[in-house]
Amino acid sequence: MERFRAELRAFVDGIYEGEKKVLVFGEGSRGARVALVGEAPGEQETLQGRPFVGKAGKNLDEFLELAKLDRAALYVTNTVKFRPTRISPAGRVVNRPPTQEEVRLFLPWLTRELELVSPEVVVTLGNVPLKALMGRKAVIGDLHGQCLDLNGRRLYPMYHPASLIYNPALRETYRDDVVRLGALLRGEA
Question: What is the 3-state secondary structure (H, E, C) of 58-106?
């Protein structure tokens, strides 16, 4: 994994020469049974150098506990490895969704990372990783909570944990999807 990270760092430095992008690499063990894939790190993730440690990460941890899944046993990563930002009308640096170009640049790296980890199940969190791995026509609203095939691996799409911050009405749906994931992993579904 160290070689992968060094090669990715060199790739990003070459593409974004002089920008000093802060990369947030995936964490967890190679051989983890489950890999969670988000869209991109946010402010807290960039500051702490770890995926899913901000508000969305707290939502994710709460639901993993509900599904009786130990985060330490999972591999957690993002599609795009640096924080995409824009300047708000108030003049602050804020998150923005990754562009299609950013997703395209990182997709071969995400594919390689998943091959290195070799999980049985890939859980996509939100539309960005779902579309990156399954194609642009894939939509989270249609596919969440279903077990799909991803080149011989199981893929389980879920809403992004941050969606609960902006749309609390999704909380029950998200909870149901997490419980179903836990049951699937325990062989109960």
Answer: HHHHHHHHHCCCCHHHCEEEECCCECCEEECCCCCEEECCCCHHHHHHH
pLDDT digits (tens), the chain, 189 positions: 899 999 999 999 999 998 889 999 999 988 899 999 999 999 999 999 999 898 888 888 887 887 788 888 899 999 999 999 999 999 999 989 999 999 999 999 999 999 999 999 999 999 999 999 998 889 999 999 999 998 889 999 999 888 878 888 988 998 899 889 888 888 876
In the chain, the amino acid numbered 82 is F
Number of H helices, E strands in the chain: 8, 7
Give me 174's structure tokens: 């998200």
Q: Angle at Cα 124 formed by Cα 123 and Cα 130, nearest 5°? A: 140
